[in-house]
Amino acid sequence: MNQVKQYLSIFSPSSSQQRQDNFENYWDFTQQHSGDLLESEQDLTKKRAVLAHFKANPITLRQPFAQPEAFYRNYVELKDDVSTLDRKTLLLTCIYKFARHEWVGITGAWAATPDFANSKDVTDRISRYHLAEEFSHTRLFHEMFCTLGLDKTEWVPLGPIAQKVYEFFPKLPEDLMSPFAFVTELMGIMFYRYVDNILDEVFADEPEACARLRELLNEITIDELAHIGQRRNYIGDFGIKVSAWITPPLFKMFFHDIPETKLFFNIDNMIKEALVFDYKEIPTPLMEKTWVPSYCVVPA
User: Fold this and answer.
1) CA 109, 113, 117 angle in degrees (round to 5)?
2) Quick check: 36 and 129 in contact, CB under 8 A?
3) Which of 191, 177, 269, 197 is nearest to 224 (CA)?
4) What angle do CA 80, 82, 84 make, to 5 degrees?
5) pLDDT tens digits, 90-149
6) Closest residue by Cα to residue 87 from 216, 173, 201, 258
């Protein structure tokens, strides 16, 4: 009988040699997991095939989405009194706003990182694959909206100041950028797990659509689990202490910009769970498809 793996905190200590070995291991994993890079299209062959499968097998809603106009009016900026909006609409506008920030961030990072032909080492190649995976997430999020008949959803840039911040961030030296990049990946996995926990309740009357939304979210989550380990791998002992220190203010600042989150989630609890994240609450089927740094795995 196969022994179930046991995991340690994502904040576990690591040596420089362990991290170097893990970069090589992650590079092998990500190529196998995502396929070949289609750089001009910001895509990967296996990610494209996954999306094509979902599009070829669409889900039909039992009832048309009740408030499409309200979604389109509020998905970029919350304008209506929330008491007039149903929970489906609010959750979807919440998801869009989170994904929009990610889309803006990876767009800026793509422009700032070397293309594959000019990648000098394994970390450069990993960065390019990582960003292509993140672009595939935007397409999966878009497929969520299409599943619910909201196919007119557009990806809208942030305001000029926020855009400049996202463009400047990937140009920082790696030692300065890495703790922040790691915490944003941790924020992503916490947000996706919190969304997953309420899907059944919010979409109780649309079980087929709910199952499809979870399938799409799981595809993103599997990558995000690998990404938190990959970003963790850039950080030494001092950097991981900095990461823990900046987690509460960064979470609060980010989610303050998404007012819907306070209607669904307890951000203080999310922060507490992030600071002790150790993979134990992640379903086994997802863990079997992702990647974890060796120093976060209990030796058999």
Assistant:
1) 140
2) no
3) 191
4) 80
5) 999 999 999 999 999 999 999 999 999 999 999 999 999 999 999 999 999 999 999 999
6) 201
- Amino acid letter at 183? V
Structure tokens belonging to residue 229: 């380990």
**Closest by CA position to 87, among listed 79, 77, 95:** 95
With tokens 């995000």, the residue in question is: 224
Q: Nearest Cα to 218, choosing from 288, 286, 126, 135?
A: 286
Quote the strand ranges of the chain, DSSP E. Answer: 37-38, 43-44
Q: Which residues contact 133 (CB under 8 A, 6 or more apart)?
A: 30, 34, 44, 47, 223, 227
Q: Are 121 and 201 in contact (CB under 8 A)?
A: no
- State how far the Cα of 139 lies from the Cα of 158, in Å rounded to an integer: 18
47-99 tens-digit pLDDT: 999 999 999 999 999 999 999 999 999 999 999 999 999 999 999 999 999 99
Place of tokens 């094509």: 52
Query: What sign does the dihedral 195-201-206-212 (CA atoms) show?
Result: positive
